[in-house]
Structures are given as structure tokens and as C-alpha cells.
Amino acid sequence: MMRIKNTFFFIVFWCGLFSNYAQNISVDESFSAEDLVNNVLINSSCATALNINFLGGNFANGEKSFGFFDATGTSFPFQNGIILSTGKIINAEGPNTSLSDDGGNMGWDGDPDLNQALGLNNTFNATVLEFDFIPLGNKISFDYIFSSEQYLTNPSSNQCNYTDGFAFLLRRNGETTYQNLAVVPNTTIPVKVNTVRGTGTICPPANETYFDAFNDTNHPTNFNGQTKVLTAQSNVIPGETYHIKLVIADEGNYRFDSAIFLGGGSFNFGIDIGDDRLMATGNPLCPGEILTVDASQVGATGYQWYQDGNVIPGATNATFNITSAGDYLVEINYGTTCQTTGSIKIEYAEPLVINQNSFTECDADTNQDGKTVFNLDTIRNQLFTNLPSNYVVSFFETPTSTTALPTTFINTNPNFQTIYARITNIQGCYSDYAVNLRVNTFDDILADETLGLCENESLILNAGSGFASYQWNTNPPQFTQQITVNSGGNYQVTVTNDVNCSKTKTFTIEPSGAATIEEIIINDFSDNNTATIQIAASSLGNYEFSLDGNNYQNSNTFSNLTAGEYTVYVQDKKGCGIVSENFLILDYPKFFTPNNDGYNDIWFIKNLERRNLEESIITIFDRYGKLIKQITRNEGWNGTFNNESLPSSDYWFTIELTNGKTVKGHFSLIR
């Protein structure tokens, strides 16, 4: 525990009487180097600094670049401490209304050790505090804030890399190399303006977690910005002599002063009793594990252990066996006036309880090969009954695999495969957990069907036998193998087999019925006689057409028809009936042979009367256009003109049909 010497306490108390109500820090240049180090920075009977030396600016009026600061009653994080500046410390007092810009043209040099530590060659205005000490424990630490005028709220782009340098250099006596303790936590990056900076300016932020603020005028110091409270720390060897050198300097020129504030009483000699064992760092204690912590120190006269701030009765030995989670602290006494401490935080990994380690899916695609997709995130959430939210569970194909499986995993072994769950962010506490994946299949083929439903009839839909359950999408649902429907639509049935895998079959029911023939459009007296069957729009079905009742076609047009009478059959493809109708194809004979043998003796057109065309007028010409014969009511021509037989030749004709159509052509008279 820290002990404040009576003389120093009186001085600080006296100063505090005048600063309790102040808004800004105050500085005092009258403290001796020994008071600043032993009574302000260290302030403990456990150690005394030796060979203390301050070096700073030699200002004409005797002002100093180092001294004591008091921040009692202000918003500044430290109550008091030591300030080291690259200018006059009197100019560090707030508010932040002027530019601290001291030390020009006075031969105030930089520091070679700082240059070497930071890789610089152009420092100026160095202020140095250095001393020797002998640590009792194996760890030292002290708190500091870096403030600078170079934290500009409205910089130009070329000012973003301006920064002053400082270092806290530590070495054991006899060694030649310093270790710099003034680094960004958990890195080797020196703390400077351009390595710890917040957002809000054109300059890029850097490690902004450790930046405090850009200051307006209402601030306890006269600096434009500062870091948060940072801790410089190092492991040391108890009983060895160490030299520490705290140095700050301007880089490049004397402009834009900076300062280091060292927290009063923050130079601590502690004991490192081991790394924290935390979930966040992946090294908690395993369930049931006992950790023996050894705080043994040479010269110690007593020990007392605490858990979560409470004394552990009887725990007064140098070692202690930890069996439960908590914040542990040990006080180590050296006589009656000196005490150091060590601490360690312990967390325990949760003992995991298996909830379910076998998972079954059905093969979801049409290829029932026993492989399907498993969602490993879903399995992760179901695997344990008590998985903490910060545990990272990954899955691996074998216990020796180092490549985690993707979240959506398709089993590589058909039907059954074992994979392994591993807690990957906690080391040493858990072995792999076997996870069994099973894939069931639905091997029966269920083909969709399209069926016709005839008018005024019903239809039985049958999903097939031998399944465990059925569910139809009717309203309300039906759960039988067969259902009866009397209207068109899509009917779906979900069929589940005995291993709880399902398939869905769709019955598309199309209302249908026998056709109504609306019209037969005939194109005859041509090189390609055709008949097109027109179905009434009110007909519901899908139809096919035939002229013999056996051979059907999808087209409703028949081509290349010879003259004669036909019957067309129209059949509903879904079996809802057949209708028929007769029609005639008319055509003229291409030749006739008037030789009185009883065959083709007369040229005439058959069946005109059956098409109500008997009043049509037929005019016959010879090849020279001479009118030979005009026929009405289709009595025919016997091949004579004025009772004289005409010779074999081609003859031409015109038919003026009573339906308005005119047909022209020619035929041969053959004798």
C-alpha cells in the first residue's frame, strides 16, 4: 500500500487549498528533483530512487520545463503528478486559449537516446527525467497522459504527420540497450500524435481507442488534445538495479509544444503472479482444474490472499490453490511499512452437456443418393444444452482436420457420416465431440399427373398405396390415400414414408367435355382441297380430329382431299366424348370419255345440290375461247356441239357458284 510522507502531504494539502475550486491545473516549479520522483511519482516506502537527474530548458527568467502539477478539483484525470514539457510548464496551465510555442533560438538540444529509440535525428528542446531504482517485485508500472499542441482540430494536410516524440526508456544496469515502455498497448508502436489520434479532422485516425479528445478553450490544460490515461509497464527482476529515462522532445523544430503528465503515486512495484485466465483470451481454467499460484518474494514477511475484494481466511502462504472463478489479489508485506500486490483474474470454462448429437435429414433433391445439405449453425445450436454465447464451435470432417467445414455441409459419405464438433476459441479443455449425420431417402417415384374432368362428373385422385401418411392441400386438408374432386385446379398431396421423408405430387385437373362443332370451312375446287373444323369457344376440352374414326391428328385442318363425302370425328383427349359431322368436298372431273361405254360419258360436277349450289352456272369453252356449252342445274355435257362430237382436246370452263365464288379451270375430252 502507498504511504505519503508527512512533509510532502503537507505541501500537497497546502497547494490543494488554493486549487480545489480552480477549473485549470496549476504548476509548481519549486519542487526538488528528489521530491518529484520519490514523493510524487513513487510515493512509497517500498522503494527509493537514486541518482535522480532532471534536464530541461534553460530559460532566461528561470522558468522550467519540468515540475509538479496539481489538478485537484478539475476534470483532468490525475489529481497531481509530474509534468515534462518541450516548453515552459507555466504555459501548460489552462484554459486552452494560446499556443504554447517555447524554446526557440536558445540552443536547447534534443536527446540522442530518444533519437535512437524512435529512429529520429532531428529532435530539439528535450526534457529528461532519469533515475535508478531497485524493484522489490517483478513488475513495474506507471500512468501517463501525452498532451500536445499538435493535436490540431483544423489542420492542413501537410500537418498530419507533424509530431513530437517521447519515450520511457528502461534498462538493467550493465545492459546497453533500452526498452521503450511508451508504446500503444499490445504493440511496439511508439505513442505520438500520428499514432494515437481520433476522428473528426482531415488527418487519418490511429488507435483511436486510446485517444481522449480534441480540446476547445474550456480545458484544464493549454494543449489542443491528449491521449487517455495510458500505462507504461515492464517485467523486471527483483533486487536488480534498473535505470529509467523519461524524455520528451520537439521533432523538427521548437514549434507546437507537447508534454507528458505522470500520475502522482502511479509508479508501482507489483508482482506478476501469472497471466489472467480468461474466456476472451482463450485460456480459461478447465472444469475442475486447480491452479496453484506462487507469489513467493525474497524478503517478504507476510502474505494475504483476497478473492473479489474479500479476505480469504487462512490464505496467508506464498502459494494459493485457486479452485473457483474470481478476481484474486495477494498483498505481500516487507516489514510493517512496505507492501506490494499481485493480481490475477480467473474464469472457468463451462462444462458442456450434450443435448443431441445425432441429426437426421431427408435427401431433398430428385437424386436420392443419400447426400443432402446439413445446416451446421442449426446443429451447433442444438448440440449442447448450455453452450455459452462466446464459445466458438466449428465442425471438422475428421478429428485430425484443421480446416473447418462450411456452414452448409453436404455429407460426403452416403446415408451416414460422423463429423466432429470442436471448441476452437478455448484451448485444452475439450476434446472433439462426435456428431452423427444420417440421411434418409424417399425412393418411390411420384410423377405429377394432368387429368381431365368431364362436365358434370367427378374424379377420384389416388396418391398410391404403401405410405405412412398423406396430406392433401384441400380446404380443409384431407389425409386419405384417395380423394374425390368435381372441379378443376391443382391438387397437391404430400406423401410421407416410414422414415419420415416426404414427397409432393401434383394432380393438375383440367375441366373438359365433348366438342361442339361450330363450322366446317371448306376450300374446294382447288389444287389442294381442305376442310377446317371450327370448334365453338364454349367447348372446354383439348381435341384431336379424324376422318376415319381411328387415326387422329392434332390439327383441325385436313388437306389434299378429293371430291366426296366425309365424316369428321372430334374426340376430347381426356376421354370426355366424341362428336361427328358430315361434309362434302366438291371438285370438277379432270377428264371424261364420251364413248358411250357407260363410264365417264358425261362431264358434270357431282353433289352441287347437296351444297345448295345447284343453281350455279357452268360455262364451257374450247381452247380458242369459243362458247361450247352453258349448263344450269348441273345436267352435264356429253362432248358435242350442235349435235356434233367434238374432238379430243382440253376444254376450259367457268363456274359461277351461287355462294358468290367463281371457279375457273380446264379438263380433257378423251376419245
Automatic annotation (TrEMBL):
Signal peptide segment: 1-24
Record bears the keyword Signal: yes
Gene3D superfamilies: Immunoglobulins
InterPro entries, per database record: Choice_anch_L, Ig-like_fold, T9SS_type_B
Alphabetical UniProt keywords: Signal
NCBIfam families: Bac_Flav_CTERM, choice_anch_L
Full protein name: Choice-of-anchor L domain-containing protein
